[in-house]
Amino acid sequence: MKSIVKSRLVAGTALASLLALSACGAETAATADSAPEQTNITVEHAQGSTEVPVNPETVYTFDLGALDTMDALDIDVDGVPAANFPESLSKYAGDDYAKIGSMKEPDFEAISEGAPDLIIISGRVAASYEELSKIAPTIDLSVDQTDSMASFKEVTGTLGRIFDKEDAADEKLAAIDKRIEETKTAAADAGTGLIVMTSGGEMTAYGAGSRFGIIHDVLGVSPVAEIKADGKHGESITAEYIADKNPDNLFVIDRDTAVGESGEAALAVMDNELVNGTNAAKNDRITALDASSWYLVGYGLSNVDSMVTEVQNGIS
What we know:
Elements: H1 2-34, E1 40-45, E2 48-53, E3 59-61, H2 64-72, E4 79-82, E5 98-102, H3 108-114, E6 118-121, H4 129-133, E7 138-140, H5 148-162, H6 166-187, E8 192-199, E9 202-206, H7 214-217, E10 222-223, E11 235-237, H8 239-245, E12 249-254, H9 255-259, H10 266-269, H11 273-276, H12 279-282, E13 286-288, H13 291-297, H14 301-315
Parallel strand pairs: 3-6, 4-5, 6-7, 8-10, 8-12, 12-13
Antiparallel strand pairs: 1-2, 8-9, 9-11
């Protein structure tokens, strides 16, 4: 009798254990089924198309415009180049952010060790696209200078899709559009303009369709002359050229300040009898633009708003 009871007890215990294991297995399977899967999207960019994870965990960017946009949208960035950051992005110079090379030369070893989920580049390191793509999904978010605002909006939309921030990006773009319209209204009565960058005591002019052409192409300041140059390099000019063209507004960018090099300050380079005889000088319409903002950062959500504001203030 005792053996029968004992056998029944053993069988019951075994059955209970089996049921417990089955329940545990079912719970594990259910947990696995409920775990969210990583979603990828296809991103079209300046060098092709790339499969990119949505909300990537570790993000490296060489493009300071993209960095500015991500900062405006509260998107975490983990790695940036060593650069002379403007005040608005100064926190990225600190040790909390991995340094992944310079503005022009990636540190491939450091990038590989960091195992990023996404790498963002633009013109300065565009030639490294293939090699960076071997490390992680890489996208080239260079802005097309021939249609800068449309391209900038497209790039912003791409970042919004990747990081699930489309609504916030659209809201900020709408605010920029409003500021642009205000500036275009002011530009209608502001006369002509000339964009000049100084470097090492030399002057270079930029016109419509150039890297700084937003002043003419988007904000409506009439160019004082057709600049004979491509979008990246501008046209070398002299004080005599400025005096001859006699712009109503001068917009000046000090490249030496932007890249942290010592040199004669931009306004000092232009402080001479010829330039001082122009309408721009006589009417206090020489605007020293934020060098880092214009030369290094360019097309980012916060930065474009600041750029438009600088021009608006200069011509108003």
